[in-house]
Amino acid sequence: MYVSMKNMLSDANANNYAVMAVNCFNIETVRAVIKAAEEENAPIIVNIFQDHLLSHCDSELITPVVKILAQRARVNVALNLDHGQEKEYLIKAIDDGFSSVMVDASRFDLENNIKMTKEIADYAHKHGASVEGEIGCLGASEDGKFTCDAMYTDPIQAKIFVEQTGIDALAVSIGTSHGNYPDGMVPKFDIERLKEIKRLTAAPLVLHGGSGSGEENILNSVKYGINKINVGCDFMNANRDAAAKLFKENPDINYFDLIHQTEKESAELVRYYIGLSGSAGKNKNLQE
């Protein structure tokens, strides 16, 4: 079933688990993610990063693909624009049928972040779409600018932000960074900060930069209030590694067999994260 994130994350919030949101960019990655969710009977969110939407497969192209696959699926599937930074792309995604969008206005001060996020939330809700906002900011490991304490989410600001924007979920910064961490590095999560944000907002909370965070961090974050976990790099790496292994085993493999086998192998990584998130077996009939 094709749904928004609203009821999906509300149930996760009420029952203390998280829904996986996996970054995809084409039919093969979407199909692998939905297949994994079906195997675990888990709700799932297909994330499309704004840069991938602009450079590879725009919202007019990808939305019908995801909607058809979702309608054929035995689980609830949401399609979410990840890190939408420009109003025009956020509105177009909603108009083209995305069931959810994430507004990333974290580059602005609190007042202007609230203003832009509320504007998109009001528009999205009129069109039956849900909205995720962000307060705090994440670094990027690729350029070595990891998330520092000054970038963490302020709990008081989080409460104000949720109350004034009307969003359906809140992305928080508690120690993760986007991208691949250096070998052996595991980020340190500020769980006490997470607990306070949850206490003050009672909202579905989102963890960005889930890749490479470590099992203990993921389990603790779910235990204390995270209801959506974004994973991008680990899934892309799983696809890459599967393709490399297949080429090594059979250098003459044809492209059709390569992509289909890669789908099967990368789906295992999604199943692993579904297990950590606590969403296995949690799929429900949602009316949205």
SSE arrangement:
Elements: H1 6-15, E1 19-23, H2 27-40, E2 44-49, H3 50-55, H4 59-72, E3 77-84, H5 87-95, E4 100-103, H6 110-126, E5 130-135, H7 155-165, E6 169-172, H8 191-201, E7 205-207, H9 215-223, E8 226-231, H10 233-249, H11 255-277
Parallel strand pairs: 1-2, 1-8, 2-3, 3-4, 4-5, 5-6, 6-7, 7-8
* Mass-distribution shape: globular
Query: Structural class, please?
Result: alpha/beta
> Could you estimate the helical fraction of the residues in percent?
40-55%
Instruction: Walk across the major sheet and give the strand order.
Output: 1-2-3-4-5-6-7-8
Outline the structure in words:
With 288 residues, this protein is an alpha/beta fold. Helices cover 49% and strands 15% of the residues. The chain has 11 helices and 8 strands. It has an 8-stranded parallel β-barrel, surrounded by 9 helices. The longest helix is centred in the C-terminal third of the chain and has 23 residues. It is globular and about 55 Å long. The model has no long low-confidence stretch (mean pLDDT 92).
